[in-house]
Amino acid sequence: MKRSNLIALVIFVLAMVWVFTLKSKDIRAVQSKVLGIFGIVYESLDELTYEQDFVNGEPISVREISKKYNKKELESRYNKLLLDLYELRAWKSQIDLLREENIELKRSLNFVEFKKKQSQKLVAARVINRPSSTWWKTFVIDRGSDDGLKLNDPVMTPVAVDRAEQVEGALVGKVVNVGKSQSTVVLVTDSECKVGAYVHGVFAGANDKGLERVQGILSGAPGAGRDVTYLMLQNLPKEADRYGVSAGAKVYSSGVGNAEVSGVFPPGLILGYVKEFEVGDFDAIARVQPAINFNQLSYIFVLISNQNKALEVGLSIGEKKVRELSIVKGKDN
Amino acid sequence: MLNFDKSRIIFALLLMALLFASFILDEFIASFLSPLGIRFFIVQTIFFTCSLSVPFPIMLLFAFFTGLTWDSIHMAIDIGDDVGFGYSIFLFFVTGALMQGMSPFFSRGRWEAPVVLVGVSTALFFLMEWFFISFARANFIFPDNYWKQLWVSVFFGMVVSPFFFYLILRLSKLCGNSIVIGEEAKA
Predict the structure, then answer these.
(1) pLDDT (tens digit, 9 = 90+) per residue, A166-214?
(2) CA distance B154 to B126
(3) Range scoring the smallest mean pLDDT among A123-127, B49-53, B177-181
(4) Rounded to an integer, what is the distance from CA B159 to the centroid of its chain?
(5) Which residues between 31 and 60 in chain B have a beta carbon less than 8 angstroms from any beta carbon of chain A?
(6) Is there a contact between A35 and B27 if contact means CB atoms under 8 Å apart?
(7) Cβ <8 Å between B23 and A38
(8) What is the DSSP letter of B80?
(9) Can you state the angle between helices B146-174 and B6-33, rounded to 10 degrees?
């Protein structure tokens, strides 16, 4: 290798190391300088520039502008400005849309990663049909038994809680009808869809098993046809307010089932926030603000429940036993 | 050592200006091709043709200038797990060094092999860029139209490179620094 080439290579490597070790602040300075050079070129190609209409970041006076440009020039500048303004507005709305989509996708990605760590299998689905007559009751998604969906599988969506980056699973509803490639989901906003729920951070009191959670049954508000403003958390103890249930408290699914509640929903999914609290004759009722906007559901996740897997395993073991028994019987005969 | 005669310096400066212009050209071409989902590496194509016609140290200078400008324009910093600022300098260096291997052909007035190598270098640049980004993001997935973009870039690069070879030869003659062996003697 020639000596000059070797020296050039050493200088090049050193320069590359310098670039690689630049701090964010310095990189920004380099970027702004480069973009500044190209910005001047792009603007000069664009004929009209507005740089001379500003002094120290402030627009120059009307008198100065009228001195600087004649009527025709002013007209062309005004039209160009209007055109730029419309173009920028169009860009802004496009950027807003992309930003929203980006936040939603990032949230979904975090959520999937989080569930993966919990060894839970999620199937992403798109809402493909939501008739206005059953807007707050059901919708149809583009996944079915071919994708592993089963009856009563819980449906959820990621939601930002407290901070934009902190994502939790919010309960949407459950699968009530499974087709080959489509399924129907009943929403928690439906008064017939009941979920065992508890108020986060509130305990009824100590017993021998430890602290007892303040629990109730959550369902859609009866008669919610046009607008869902709240959900109903019923069967709360009368003393719930004394235990600390107050406006703003988070409500989560408890995973508990009874005669009324099927218990298909996993525990720990956020349902909403206590809005109001009312004490009745026998129990207390809390109005709950839903954690998600049920109007804007376009993508959701179906949790492929382990319960179903366990059932399958149980069935296969059962089948095996029956087969073994029939073989034994056959031998006996 | 390097021969710092005036004609060579002027020629190198002209090529530098050509590289600078390629970034402006890239901006306009991208606005037409991006909506079609096509990517054409005009900057890279011009860099490949330029790096054939200059000595190794000048090629390094071009690689540094082009890589730094490329990253300054196209890279968003502080977005987490992504490639480091300046990685394109390395990509331009590798492909530029590869192109240098063809400079004896070019100086003998043979264009076929350099044109093919422009295609090879474009593909290599494309693949290395994908590899670096995928490695940094720890996610090795080919985007949907990746192969289409690659072949289109290679095809366009090979189609337009003879024009730039011709332009560079004209510029070299204009500066009195003919690249083609024997032409200086004739002149």
Answers:
(1) 678 889 999 989 998 899 999 888 877 888 898 887 777 655 556 677 8
(2) 9
(3) B177-181
(4) 14
(5) 56-57, 60
(6) no
(7) yes
(8) S
(9) 150
